Amino acid sequence: MVQIYQNPDSTNIKPIFALIGTDKQGKGTTWRHTLYGLSKLRYKVLGVTFPSYNTVGGMGAEINLSHKQIIDLLPSLGVDTAGWSKSKYAQIYSYILDRGMATQAIIDHVNQGYVVVTKRSSKATHAAYQKAFNNIPERTTMQLEPFVPDPSVIMNMLSKGIRVDDFSEKGSSVLDDFESQNQDPVAKIQDKYTRNPKKVGARYGFHIPYEESPQRLDTILEGLTTILSNNPYTEKVRDEEENPIKILGREEAKWDFRTKEGLENFLTKFTGADLLESWFSHPFEIANSYEDLFRINGKLLDYPMSVKEEIDQVIEQHMNSFKSAK
Which pTM was predicted? Predict the structure, then answer.
């Protein structure tokens, strides 16, 4: 059974659910499986990833996270960085700007009957990381994010014990400033939020134990479908109708600021038109299949599709439970 921490006022909650947890614990895979499962259960679903690296704020967040590498690389490109310093508060505002650009879409889709599942949470993720790594009080970070809708449920993915030393690269580049640090302080703060979800504006907190993907999805659906049953905000689609999953946000940066070539490309090619596009254009992607969910920026992830059969079996069990309960 999933362990659920509940606030007294937990009726008629708006269906905004956030997956939280430390880096490299499988949030992306679990986020995709949750979207897929809820869609198969006929809920209209919007997935949102924070940060989104196609917004001005998201690019600002990536620049801040890559600060050490950028400062080391810029002199080789003819830029004098003597005397440059980094403000830890600039990082906060870049994240807030990115989430602010997604806020209207989240509100609109909840009003249209969608279930919204976010990868990372505005407050529960942001405040924990800023406190753990920049020593900024949690309340300070939370007070700066008054407009971003709070999730009704935070789902905390517990660590599988991977340490920083166990991985040396993120894709083709090095770890960012947060990934390269000990994640235990973040885990401790997020555990506190999970046990007292009211602290981050949520109604429920789940502890999701580390399991293989099908078991993890089973745990999540067990908790979410209980909360969603008879929810007045959600709208299901009929069995005969198509039910594509909408995705908002880019999970990988378009510009690789941690390599000389990537940074040089950004400095020479990022134009006013790019800036305007990243500000005004925040397009949705549509996933019509399981495989579509495992594409990032058009590239199919290196993920074993064989697990899909087990995932479908888990979802089928929940569909049967729904029918039996009616």
Answer: 0.90
